[in-house]
Write a structure and sequence with these properties.
Layout lengths: L9 E6 L5 E6 L2 E4 L50 E3 L4 E3 L4 H15 L13 E5 L2 E7 L2 H6 L4 E9 L11 E9 L5 E8 L6 H10 L4 H4 L16 H7 L3
Antiparallel strand pairs: 1-2, 2-3, 4-5, 6-7, 7-10, 8-9, 9-10
């Protein structure tokens, strides 16, 4: 398992006589280790145009849906630029490789004279830790409330396949976040030892198309015991929505 030590400030990284790390000291204790990974977020490298182009609150270049900056004929793409976030319907900074690739395509088409506009993003992403697959798109419940949105969520946990499928049939956890008034889906998160990651793409499209949680209840989802249940965790979570 993994032991988490949350809510602590790192005070010192302690090395041995060979300058190799041997411990981490925080404000609440000291922990022996042979490796330290430091992850403190991203800072866009915009030194080239920071004095001439409009910047976002974190220093990224502000661009429109054509990847155009505040200066005519100057485009910005990738991790140095903002992107339109459909979940908040505004510019945001989401440093993901998928966003970088799409922004490059949009900029290239427009530079070549073909009018192409970005569809915006939902911030879809995933991670696998010790064989636990976790995927998400859109807003989490915590983020939505932090933004002051009036939201609800629905949770469900079930086996990936029918109970009589005895092999390769772990549980899947799902949470769907939706607007309390409009019922529009704003985000979704799933976790399982089973690779259910492709399911998050459906939620990404649902957010973009403003699908409601109620529309999801009777959605046509195929069934075969080798893959899923007739009414699987996605539709069951929707049925449990308040």
């Amino acid at each position: 398992g993994v032991n988490l030590r949350l809510g602590q400030s790192v005070m010192e990284i302690i090395g041995d006589e060979n300058n190799k790390v041997k411990a981490v000291k925080t404000d609440k204790g000291q922990y022996e280790t042979d490796m330290v990974l430091m992850a403190i977020g991203f800072r866009p490298n915009t030194s080239l145009g920071k004095d001439d182009l409009e910047l976002f609150r974190n220093g990224a270049y502000v661009v429109d849906k054509h990847q155009r900056t505040s200066v005519k004929d100057v485009y910005a793409i990738g991790d140095c630029a903002t992107i339109f976030d459909n979940t908040i319907e505004n510019k945001n900074y989401i440093a993901l490789a998928t966003n970088a690739v799409r922004s490059g395509l949009v900029a290239a088409f427009n530079i070549l004279g073909k009018d192409v506009e970005s569809l915006g993003v939902q911030g879809s992403n995933g991670i696998c830790i010790f064989d636990l697959k976790m995927v998400s798109t859109g807003l989490s419940l915590k983020k939505a409330k932090k933004l002051g949105l009036d939201v609800e969520c629905t949770d469900f946990e079930d086996l990936q396949k029918p109970e009589f499928m005895e092999h390769d049939n772990p549980k899947v956890k799902i949470r769907i976040v939706y607007d309390k008034k409009t019922r529009v889906i704003l985000g979704a998160q799933m976790a399982s030892h089973y690779d259910m990651s492709m399911g998050i793409h459906m939620f990404s499209l649902a957010i973009y198309k403003k699908v409601t949680i109620d529309e999801l209840k009777l959605l046509d989802i195929f069934f075969l015991p080798h893959f899923n249940k007739p009414y699987n965790y996605i539709t069951m979570a929707a049925l449990g929505a308040k």
